What does this fold into?
Amino acid sequence: MVFTEEGELIERTTDPKEIADKLSEIGVLFERWEPKRPISEDAGEEEVLEAFKEDIDRLMERFGFKSCDVVALSPDNPKKEELRKKFLDEHTHTDFEVRYFVYGDGVFYLHPNDKVYVVHCEGGDLISVPPNTPHWFDMGENPNFKCIRLFTTEEGWVAHYTGSDIARKFPTYEGILQIR
It folds into this structure.
């Protein structure tokens, strides 16, 4: 979905190819991946990374990523509210923000220009937000996902908040699911 900065919806698609094409115009990589063998939601980090080894290796070589890991969050996590708030304000990173959703979902809001691109990522989706791209992320009130993360820096996820209140003009995760 593409919105004006004021929060008015101007374009919507759910087709993965159209999403990838639209996002590539702003330097964002969006791909659909399939594991080389079925994996369960309770698979450990080693099993997950092995199931996607070829795709991970391809991106590591292409972009110079130095490390990757697997992160998961469930609805019973006692820090889910605190973690959600950490990502809800517009911020940038000096590193790529790369997430592959093994399962579950979340919403990325990308603000590279005078528009906001809203991407509901689900299991099978990879999104790579370029360095210094203003964005925010919403995992919802009851997050339930497992993601592969890739990094070019040893510091990992470090946010530089923009101070903008733009995120408050847009529907939250729950609102985005209703208008999809």
About this structure: The radius of gyration is 16 Å.
